[in-house]
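Suppose a colleague, Dr. K., hands you the sequence of a protein chain of 80 amino acids and asks what its three-dimensional shape might be. Before reaching for any lab equipment, you can write down a predicted structure in token form. Begin with the sequence itself:
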Amino acid sequence: DIKWLYHQLVIMNLNQYATGTAQPGLSVQNLKTVSFFLPSLNIQKEIVSEIEKLEVKISEAKTIIESAQAQKEAILKKYL
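The predicted structure, expressed as tokens, is then:
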């Protein structure tokens, strides 16, 4: 599942294996030692489903926070 792979790659933080200073890069030699668990496609889809549910909650929470900030500013302007 491509979405699962995206999240897996993000969590693996492959930048930590980069070498070089002017143009850091990932060498095959450094990546040969990297391993990760590859669950079945069904489990990958379940993981992605759970992540997407959480992302919706995060988005909703951010909207509430932004709205509360605007409401706070409106109250401050009204009374102060």
